[in-house]
Every structure is written in structure tokens, then in C-alpha cells.
């Protein structure tokens, strides 16, 4: 998969894409990340990429022409079609479902805004999707682009040493992940639940599913509200709720 990023800070994009799982995916040829700087396509000695907004007000707005020229160069670098995604606090919230859809594509172009944003005429003409990583404002879209690159890159086949890791992540099945433990078995901070070192893989799977359902109920009940749980999952969740309430002497929801 190839990811092109339109950004005023290409060094940041290249540095973040060189680390960890994404860096390994790039080394293995599973992922290619290329950054394009609008300043390289701006006119004049100052390579200006922004101007004051019409109507007055603080801040600057990114100019149409450098952005269009940069986007054209990104498209020309590879003949395969690619949706153009703007990282913006006004966009659709990024979800794992969206990440999986992006990860299945051969190409993706990410556009990172700066200052007060982009000229709206460019957005309307050239942007296919606006995407947000949360309800807060950052200095620019680069951190959001890095999030998308990481989330998409780790889903490329062969990026993870164990393919099951991705399948068991939080949100892959709509639920939060279960808790995990490693050595030592006993520690001053507590002991590993006995089921996890008992060797009964069916019991382990059942415990993990119950914990996943329970954590989602406690921390993200909105996710559970969107799901249709089958009889087995409802039973597991009820077991977790009874145990949780009994441990705290409660008869009500958290």
C-alpha cells in the first residue's frame, strides 16, 4: 500500500513512519509513505502557502494553488486511484471500521491542514473525506495523519509478527480488549488470574470474552448500545456484572 501525505512538515511524517510496526512494514515493502510539501510548489521567492482570510479575523488560510499543485504531483506519482482525505476536527470520527476500509485500498492520500484551515473551495473540489481523530484541536493535521498511517500500516498483511494480534485488538469486533498479563505469575501488585495459566484454552477464551464485554460495559457503554449480543455474550456479560457488583457490594450499574 502507498500513502501520500500533503504536509508542511514532511520530516515529521517520515520520522514517525520509520518507527515500530509501521517502520517494519515499510522495510518489508508492505507500506510506502511519501510526503509532499506545498512550499515546493508555491510561487515567488517566499514560497508563500497561506494568506489572511477574507472577512477579517485571526490566523491564516492555506492557499488553493500550492495545495492543488501538490495534490496533482501526489496523484501523478502513482497511476492507481486514491481517495483524498483531509485531517480536520470537523470531519467524521476515525473508527476501526474506517481503518480497515482504508487498509484494503492500494493507495490513500492524506492532506494535513495548518493555520486556520484550507480555502474551502479547495476542500469542496478536491477532498473526498474529512476525518477527525477526536473532539479537540491540534496545531495541524500531521499528528492525525500519523495516527492513520499507524492504524492502517499495522493491518497490512505481514506487518505484525503474529497476525492474531490485530484480530484481538480493541474495536476489531466492536468491543474493548481484555486485560493481559505476563511474568512473573506472582508480584507485590497482585497475581495473574488462575485461569490464564491453567492450560484450558476454552476456559481462557471464555474468560477473555467475558472480560472484554465487561470492560466495554464499564468504560464504553455506548459501544455495547450499538451491538446485538447473542445469548452466549449476554450470559458472559451478566456473569461479569454479578462478579463486579459483588466485589464492590453494589446492586446498581457503575
From TrEMBL:
InterPro entries: Alpha/beta_knot_MTases, tRNA_m1G_MeTrfase_C_sf, tRNA_m1G_MeTrfase_TrmD, tRNA_m1G_MTases_N, tRNA_MeTrfase_TRMD/TRM10. Keywords: Cytoplasm, Methyltransferase, S-adenosyl-L-methionine, Transferase, tRNA processing. CDD domains: TrmD-like. GO terms for cellular component: cytosol. S-adenosyl-L-methionine binds at residues 113, 133-138. SUPFAM superfamilies: alpha/beta knot. It catalyses: guanosine(37) in tRNA + S-adenosyl-L-methionine = N(1)-methylguanosine(37) in tRNA + S-adenosyl-L-homocysteine + H(+). Its EC number is 2.1.1.228. One of its GO terms (biological process) is tRNA N1-guanine methylation. The keyword Transmembrane helix does not apply. Residues 1-225 form the tRNA methyltransferase TRMD/TRM10-type domain. Its main location: cytoplasm. The keyword Nucleotide-binding does not apply. It is found in: Cytoplasm. GO terms for molecular function: tRNA (guanine(37)-N1)-methyltransferase activity. Pfam families: tRNA_m1G_MT. It is an enzyme of class 2 (transferase). PANTHER family: TRNA (GUANINE-N(1)-)-METHYLTRANSFERASE (PTHR46417). Belongs to the RNA methyltransferase TrmD family. This is tRNA (guanine-N(1)-)-methyltransferase. The lineage of its organism: Bacteria, Pseudomonadati, Pseudomonadota, Gammaproteobacteria, Lysobacterales.
Amino acid at each position: 500500500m502507498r500513502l501520500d501525505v500533503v504536509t508542511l512538515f514532511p520530516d515529521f511524517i517520515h520520522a514517525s513512519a520509520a518507527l515500530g510496526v509501521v517502520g517494519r512494514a515499510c522495510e518489508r515493502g508492505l507500506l510506502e509513505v511519501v510526503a509532499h510539501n506545498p512550499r515546493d510548489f508555491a510561487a515567488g521567492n517566499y514560497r508563500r502557502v497561506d494568506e489572511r482570510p477574507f472577512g477579517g479575523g485571526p490566523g491564516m488560510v492555506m492557499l488553493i494553488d500550492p495545495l492543488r499543485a501538490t495534490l496533482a504531483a501526489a496523484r501523478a506519482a502513482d497511476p492507481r486511484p486514491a481517495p483524498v482525505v483531509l485531517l480536520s476536527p470537523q470531519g467524521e470520527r476515525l473508527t476501526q471500521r474506517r481503518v480497515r476500509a482504508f487498509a484494503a485500498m492500494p493507495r490513500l492520500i492524506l492532506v494535513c491542514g495548518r493555520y486556520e484551515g484550507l480555502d474551502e473551495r479547495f476542500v469542496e473540489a478536491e477532498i473526498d473525506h474529512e476525518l477527525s481523530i477526536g473532539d479537540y484541536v491540534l496545531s495541524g493535521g500531521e499528528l492525525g495523519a500519523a495516527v492513520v498511517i499507524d492504524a492502517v500500516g499495522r493491518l497490512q498483511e505481514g506487518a505484525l509478527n503474529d497476525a492474531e494480534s490485530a484480530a484481538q485488538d480493541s474495536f476489531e469486533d466492536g468491543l474493548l480488549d481484555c486485560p493481559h498479563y505476563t511474568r512473573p505469575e506472582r508480584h507485590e501488585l497482585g497475581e495473574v488470574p488462575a485461569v490464564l495459566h491453567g492450560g484450558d484454552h476454552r476456559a481462557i477464551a471464555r474468560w477473555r470474552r467475558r472480560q472484554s464485554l465487561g470492560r466495554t460495559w464499564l468504560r464504553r457503554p455506548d459501544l455495547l448500545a450499538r451491538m446485538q449480543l447473542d445469548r452466549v455474550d449476554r450470559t458472559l456479560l451478566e456473569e461479569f456484572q454479578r462478579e463486579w457488583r459483588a466485589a464492590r457490594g453494589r446492586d446498581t450499574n457503575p
